[in-house]
Amino acid sequence: MKGQRPTLARVDRGALRHNWSELARRAGGRAVYAMVKADAYGHGAAPVAACLAEAGCRHFSVVSVDEAAQLRAAGRDEEILVLGGVHDAAEAEAALAAGLVTVLHHPGQLELVAEAAGDPPARVHVEVDTGMRRMGVPSDAAAAFLERVAAEPRLRLAGVYTHLAQAEETDLEPSREQLRRFAAVLDAAAAAGVDPGCVHAANSAGLLAGTDLAGMGPATDAVRVGLALYGVRPSAVRPADLRPVMTLSTRVAAVRSLRAGDPVGYGGDWRAPRDTHIATLPLGYADGVPRAAAGRATVLLAGALRPAVGRISMDYTTVDVGDSGVAVGDEAVVFGPEHSVEHLAEAAGTIPYEILVGVGPRVPRVYVD
Predict the structure, then answer these.
(1) What is the per-residue pLDDT for 365?
(2) pTM: predicted TM-score of the whole model, two decimal places
(3) Could you say which of 139, 178, 194, 202 would form a disulfide bridge with 207 (CB–CB 3.0 to 4.6 Å)?
(4) Which of 164, 199, 230 is the last residue of a domain?
(5) 353 counts as catalytic
(6) What is the pLDDT of residues 59-117, one digit of tens each?
């Protein structure tokens, strides 16, 4: 770290392997697709995928062909499912050249992949929209679409899936209804002689719901895990043995004394309520600490949670440390195993996903066991 800012994100491979093992156990023999999209939720896609492959993962999921190409360039030869599909002929050709499995959401994508395919046929999955209303073939048109895919000799239908929109909530009835719609689509396709290949529906929240969703839809062959893989529970009402993978930390860059009434930061809209000391941390909203968390976030510093005060700026965050004796060079943990990312997300009025992917590219990722 010589010559660099002392801010870093430690990625614990041991915690990642533990989470993989726990989620694979819960999958009960089904294949597990590990979500490494968005640079593995900010953790670093190539090193995360390498760690998971060593632990036994054989299926990865990303959103774009570009993300998949980066994994191939890093030496990954496992199956990679491109959830977003392809958008033009060049992308379809690149996907097939890299041996990717692409997702079809509409007839246009079917035509793009079929035109790019040769021998052997291109392996594809189809997303069925059962209630997310974002991507995928609408459920009332899905059986006919699956028939069309199965009849196309340049394609091989390797999988069919849906995405649960509310599986993290206490009320699982909307998820049950989605699964019932999904089962109806598959039944109609089966009646037409369509083999769906790998069937999957559960995301992290759906997997952790366990028996609460069991029997409400088709038998599935795989699950897709994202947030839980990185040690964050997608639902507070469903506990799981998961370990946080990322720790975002820095070291105090400056300490200054304040008198009661002294303003701090841009706008001076926070004033010291008493004589105190302010520690300046060299990280800000460019590094993953949202500006909206000002006045509500805390950091773990000198054995206690210290409040962030004043406005969070692009490069710095100021913390009220009182008379604790905090000194330049002391470590401050923004989030990690002892101070969860959920706390920062709540302070910022957002979700842990956004915090993790928001840890900026100038923050080095350091991989530890």
Answers:
(1) 98
(2) 0.95
(3) 202
(4) 230
(5) no
(6) 999 999 999 999 999 999 999 999 999 999 999 999 999 999 999 999 999 999 999 99
- Clarify whether residues 203 and 316 are in a common domain: no
- State how many domains the chain has: 2
* Residue at a domain's end among 230, 260, 279: 230
pLDDT tens digit sequence for 159-209: 999 999 999 999 999 999 999 999 999 999 999 999 999 999 999 999 999
- What is the 3 state secondary structure string of the chain? CCCCCCCEEEEEHHHHHHHHHHHHHHHCCCEEEEECHHHHHCCCHHHHHHHHHHHCCCEEEECCHHHHHHHHHCCCCCEEEECCCCCCHHHHHHHHHCCCEEEECCHHHHHHHHHHCCCCCEEEEEEEECCCCCCCEEHHHHHHHHHHHHHCCCEEEEEEECCCCCCCCCCCHHHHHHHHHHHHHHHHHHHCCCCCCEEECCCHHHHHHHHHCCCCCCCCCEEEECHHHHCCCCCCCCCCCCCCCEEEEEECCEEEEECCCCEECHHHCEECCCCEEEEEECCCCCCCCCHHHCCCCEEEECCEEEEEECCCCCCCEEEECCCCCCCCCCEEEEEECCECHHHHHHHHCCCHHHHHHCCCCCCCEEEEC
- What per-residue confidence (pLDDT) applies to 1? 43
The domain that contains 124 carries what CATH number?
A: 3.20.20.10
54: in domain: yes
Domain with 47, as residue range(s), is: 13-230
Q: For residue 216, is pLDDT > 80?
A: no
Q: Are residues 171 and 258 in the same domain?
A: no
| 266 a catalytic residue | yes
Q: Are residues 254 and 355 in the same domain?
A: yes
Looking at 2, 33, 37, 230, which residue is catalytic?
37
CATH number for 304:
2.40.37.10
